[in-house]
Fold each of these.
Amino acid sequence: MSEAIALAALAASLAAAIARSRRAPDWAVAVAGAAVLVATGAISLDGARRAFDRLGPTVGFLAALLVLADGCRRAGVFDALGALIARGASGRPRRLLALVFAAAAGTTAVLSLDATVVLLTPVVFATAARVRADPRPHVYACSHLANSASLLLPVSNLTNLLAFAAAGISFTRFAALMALPWMVALAVEWVVLSRAFAGALRPVRGREPPGAAVPAREPAPPAYALAVVALTLAGFAASSALRVAPVWFAAAGAGALTVRRPPRPLELALAAEPAFLVFVLALGVIVAAAGEHGLSSLIRSLLPPGDGLPALLGVAAISAVLANLVNNLPATLIVVPVAAASGTGAVLAMLIGVGVGPNLSYVGSLATLLWRRIVHAHDHDTDIAEFTLLGVRTVPAVLVASTAALWLALHVV
Amino acid sequence: MRALVWITESGWEGCVDQAAMLLAPDAEVTLLHVAATDVEGLVAGGPGRLLGRHPPPRHEREQPMHAIAEHGARALLESARDRLEAAWGQPARSPSGESSVRLLARRGRLEREVLEACADADLLVLGRDGDDRRPGPGSLGRHARFVVDHAPCTVALVWPGGPPAGAIHWPAHLRR
């Protein structure tokens, strides 16, 4: 009975997050679901508190990162990045793509995939228009790298943050182990995307230099914001040596950007996305309850044990499938406790799966797709075929190559 | 002679140069650019694919995407008209001083918009949108291929960078 209630609460929260209804906001549904689970004894008050204690620091970390990224936006970091890309490309589409790759990989790794999707991608679109380049390769690159370049650091993806807390390794060790898988993922994406858009990226013989396309007056580089981000990163790297949790460096960075250019209080509160933070906490309680009542043992029976290459590939593949069924956030919450028991290798292989997997489905997961079908809601004029084709050509290759690179790193680093 | 020239960001110069050779200055020329709205959908829909996230709206001082796309298209089409008139050596002006070269900016799915626009044209000039380094099926991308396959008028298919230097890869049954 408890199992059914827990699964129903999980399904309802997911459905609410996908439906994005005003009348039943996802955070409220998840909180109500968690409350029902506590009230019916499906999870004890202690169990709920443990889930809270486990997720609380992660959610605080996430809030600091969201404020940090928004501070960078307000300081003009992304506009400056756009200007830099436009100038550096000097009219050559393939060089433009290389710079977009660098910007998207860097933004995703340092400021998380949300920053790339929400803040960088619109700037890249505008930049492509400004230098008269076909926007397709560059926008698709941002969309893909938001996922596949989110392997490098614990702060690159919320799924990484959740697993980082469970994996019990330092920030630098996480980065050292994931550096090779991250670079391999970037290489595969580069090969596939630059071939798929070869026509749009070809150098044009006889083209005059695009003097008019580059703006005469460039925004000054936001030195203060960049210095804050660099110092925050340095703090992350030194966190284990200094015995200070990385979350405090993120908070300091977010604070430094906020003090310099204070936003309106409401703007600041919205930047931290409080509704999402509540949703993550409540979802954590619900998944903990579902885990206690059979979900964890089901996942345990599915995941191959050990940390050999075949086992890691199996974990990555299953995680990618799960992320494509129910979205990567719930997939991570479900798999992390089980994978953590198998060791660091399994946790990181899971992150490769839930990080890269979402490039397969246009709307994030099968669950979202089914919902869109039901309500006939389509993004206007989307080209799902193009997106899916690119996903099919990159995701399996990145999964295998990056997991093999992880296996290698686990033996070498 | 009513001609439609499909102007794309990659290789519009070659297309215009070929059109200038094929067409006389008294032809009714329309230069067409299509802004692909699927890319705009990918940009705008991005946050929607992040489960549970509700990023705050940021419309202060930011141009809407369609305005950016329209501005870019307009600038590209005007450059193409300038190049065409320069290649003809004379501005194609009507007695009232207006250019007879029509500029047409459309939005939507590329293939559909191009085919609809050439419904009453006698000639469509378009560039190969694939890998133009060597001759072969790869030189035509899926958008241009669909247009070539379905165009209701005569089609002039241009190598935007000039004919490729690569040799033809003959299939076995055609080899000498």
Amino acid sequence: MRVKLENLTKRWGNVVGADHINLEVGDGEFVAFLGPSGCGKTTTLLMIAGIYKPTEGIIKFDGQIVNHLAPKDRNIGMVFQSYALYPHMTVFQNISYPLKLKKVPKEEMQKHAQRVADMMGIGHLMDRKPAQLSGGQQQRVALGRALVKEPDLLLFDEPLSNLDARLRLTMRSEIKRLQMELGITSIYVTHDQVEAMTMANRIAVMKDGRLQAYATPDELYDRPRTLFIAGFVGNPPMNFLEVEVVRENGDYHARREGFDVVVPADRGVKAAGQGTIIMGIRPEDITLGDEGIVGEVYVVEPLGRDDLVDVRIGKADIHVLADPEKGLKVGDMVRLNFDTHKIQFFDPQTEQSLLWTD
Amino acid sequence: MATTTRDIGPLYNLRRFLGRSLPYVLLIISILPIVIGYAWLIIATFSYRTEGLFPIDANGNIGGWTLRNWAFLRDPKIWHVTLNSLGIALGMVVGVGFVSSLAAYALSRMNFAGRKAFLSLTLILHAFPSVTLLIAIFFVLNFISGIPVLGPRFGYNTVGGVALVMVSLELPLGVWLMKGFFDNISWDMERAALIDGASRFRVWWEIILPQIKPGLAALAIFNFLSGWSAFLIPFTFTVGTKVANLPVYLRQLISDTAPTNWNQIAAVGLFQLIPVMIFFIFTQEMLLNIYSGGAKGGV
């Protein structure tokens, strides 16, 4: 099913939950709403579910306006962060509840619920109460309950936040696989950019109730439209430096105190002559070498596969990923090479990208 | 093998014994007056007269046991009165439980104009001692008496009228208590049920109410007890023995002109107490729920 939001807005008095959201979700697509807490992603999701009434704007399912439809008439399934299982019902009763409300005959209900439970790997737990299950099992029951009525649209509200790190990884790939197999259009709310990047076909980045960008994970990563997206997507986060870009002898230089790199002309030309601007570069795009900008190691954080090294250049701190074999210590002098084809430039006032504009 | 021996002298043993028994001693001392009171009551109901805790006969000698005080059980009137008491108590259980669980759900979950004002108003209403409202309530009951079908059932001088007044006086507390229980239920569970396809009413009935069963039970017990022992309202708004409840009947046994048979009053009092005691023994744990705020955390 296709979902389309047009100028979708939710206000409570002066508090704005969602502000003129426009986006379209294709049939069978997996879209993530990504943003920090309080950015309006859950508000938007609950409006799509029909729990909140939009203050303005319209929601369309397959071209039909559904604003006036009650949640039960939208044929959606939803998984909550708290799982929201019914504690007084058994797993079977939980999963079959949507079917019971649809007045599906008992025998069919039983068969159907069992099939979904088996698919989720909880078929042997049908007689248990939710309190007797582990977090991962509860999550599977919640997922089963959302899937059992064969919804046209699946909504996820931070479903993995309450799980431990390892289980989160397993469930992440499981949800992704299920979604692909069943081909159900899905909207997934999360504040975890790794979850959004790994699972979604497209990501809607939100901040303060506004849609910041709506693009594929690669696009967000390689061509961030705003400073906020650049800082929010990617782990460890992008480095930001205030620089001035000038043209000298045909080359474009990004400069600040103790710092001077030559940037490719196609990027440099858009940033030159704008005064002080913000340069962004990801830690993984900086390498340690024998040549390059000189800096002093300030902090070393071992991450296992890499060391995250905080290098001080003049007054600026830059995070760099380094090979632990190098055995860097605080106070060491290092030289940094920047992959200048990955450098980003942002306007400090508007916080918009100088490279990627519409 | 060497065993480490501690100095276990007689003094140590004594101290340990005292340390263990002290709480019991204190508890026994503090409940002694209550136990004596009950013993006195029970002894009194089976004797002509009592002197302290001892039953005595006409000559002042110990003895004089009798079943005379319990003769009222043969009187059909007492059973009628008991039934009235039961009616008021059950009326309160059902009335307060039903209305406050519906009202509290709305107050807890829905947003409507005047919600806050309504909440504070109910709290103020609860603060009024019912004595101050007696005259006003009389007029209301009198008005209801004039309504064709309702009048004979819920008007002045009817058991239904008494129950109606008791229910409405108890509602503010009931609504507030139930609201507390509803507030503890997560919104997500309700949203999940709405998305699963339930109507608002079904959500309330099938999903939310089962979560607050402990609260409902506590409220029911609380109301049963206060309905069963109600005196002021039944005494004020009923005339004669036909519609009296047990406490009022008890009051009627005390006459201004004839000497009062206190031992019979003790017997009726004990008769009224027995169901409450049995009830309380079985439900005291649930009753404590009302203070701890009920529903288990669940998932």
Amino acid sequence: MATMNIIQAVNNALHLAMAADDNVVVLGEDVGKFGGVFRATVGLQAAFGEDRVIDTPLAESGIIGAAIGMALYGVTAVAEIQFSDFIFPAYDQIVNELAKFRYRSGGEYPCPVVIRTPVGGGIRGGHYHSQSPESLFVHHAGLVVVAPSNPYDAKGLLLSALESPDPVMVLEPKRVYRGPDHGKNWGSHPKGQVPEGHYTVPIGKAAIARELTGDGTAVTILTYGAMVHTCEKAAALAQQEGIDVELVDLRSLMPYDLEAIVASAKKTGRVVVANEAPRMCGYAAEITSLVMEHCFDWLEAPVTRVTGYDTPFPYTLEFAYLPDAGRVLTALRTVATYG
Amino acid sequence: MSSAAHTLPTVSTLQSAPTVSTELLQVMAPDGSVVDAAFIATIPEADLIRLYEAMLAQRVYDDRMIKMQRQGRLGFYLACTGEEACSYGPAYALEARDWFYPAYREPGIALWRGMPFQAWVDNMVGNCDDPAKGRQMPVHWTARAQNIVSISSPVGTQIPQCTGSAYAAKLMGHDAVSICFFGEGTSSEGDFHVGLNFAGVWKSPAIFFCRNNGYAISTPFEKTTAAAHIVLRAHGYGIRGVLVDGNDVLAVIKAVRDAADWARAGNGPTLIEAKTYRIAAHSTSDDPSSYRSREEEALWAELCPLKRLRAYLETKGLWDETKEQACVDTSSARIIAALTIAESKPHPALDTVFDDVFAERPAHLDAQLNAMTAHVASGESDYRAG
């Protein structure tokens, strides 16, 4: 075991994968000599050479298009898109090509590319370094989408992604890359303890990030990524008000763990769904709908969403925009006292 | 007082760029007379006959498919009439280990490289034996066993993919080149720029084959670019460029062979621009009479790749009208038989809608398959099993 932040956990996973298999390639903007703008690929080029850790020209559709060709041929390509806000020049390659290759070829051409990209706000990055585009990718059939919230899961899910026969997008929560709460490091967090060797976290399985204590009105929070930590903070505050939170970290957005979602919703009958992305057609909307379809008779209150607003992502006012623990707490009170 | 420009420091370690030629590469003139006897001598006469037979057969298949579509028996078709040399030539020129990314006007790649004929026809119908399992329109086939990648409708996406496959082959130490096909219309897409630029930097053993057939559906070449040739862009990427007569199948073979030799020697990619003409309509949904003249069509019909090779073969005493008619009859019977079989086969099963989305069907798709199956079985579905 070692104390790692998310960057170190990702870097460690890539080192392991590249050492184990000569046909693993990392490509992206500034990933080689420089080691990536977030330092996630530091040391890889020195260890594995320029042919396998490739500083590409600045063109996201080229990064993903070339990664697709590599994967079709038999190379495992790990593409880094520097910020998920920059991913849209590659959107066609991702949703029309990568996602559809296995299907459109009748199963002849699987295309297991791994795409790593940082998502989310709270880093003073403005519109072009802060967005959360997950719903735009889960909507297109054929992509596996995972959203780890901590170093242990980030490494385990990335290693699972590398072994997956399907294309996988790993959405990395950049706000908590180096610590779960505005600079606090991962050393004191249980998920900051990471095995140095190989292990995987299964795709498609949620985790319980906080269990019910049995003390207070039980409420479920369903969330993922950096919002897990915002919700943990809200849950601690809510406990003092007699609200007992079961916090489900979805971890995997496609496929999703319906069993875990339904089990928690039926257990508490009161559900808050939180995501940082805008409200309209956000991932929280789909999860809310699933809870309604599968748990209607168990619900004690309307399922309530906490989300970003339906505006572009602001710069100066980003902490007014972002869903914070206070907004989650308000939703918990509403749901806990309904009826 | 003026002075000579100072030399600026450069961060590039590259030396001189590969050549880009705008001289039209020709092995055979339009009347079948020989331009490059030395090259013709490298192709066995039996192969010349096989190439001609294959291109003639293709014209028969295309004519038959269009008739079938007009009768309402085929949803859609894209013929390659007039451009046969641009798929049979490259298919002949390369090796079994090489990778192909066709667009949708290169049937010669499938049929020359040995995709089973019935499978190719099953794809047109979208039946249960279609290799693409009825999931794509006609002419969007796939042939993994022949190293031919599944076809995408929005052409251009395959250009950076070809760059990636070529790079992967080099990384793995394989002596394989990757070739992709697209029209001059596609050269306006961002993926063209991105794919060629990456390939130049990486020295990917790739061949970018631009079939300049004059039209992107109705958009003429002069509305695609202000440049005289697409191949001029090779300069900008620091890669080799070749202009070839796309209606001269031997010149196409030479251009592709040279490009493959260049790539296999570690020199990187080549952009080939083949000048040809889409005698066919863009597709069965198109009517070219609204945007081009009959005179222009007649001019190019005279330059047809089949006429040229036939003239040469006849001069050599290798072909005559009897052989021509026999080949047409055999090909016609072959395509009609295959289509009859294809039409008799049932649709793909309902679960094929949900398979291959992922390697394993996840729970939410199991649930959706069950819902679809129940709805179809209820008799209240618009779908009728075929």
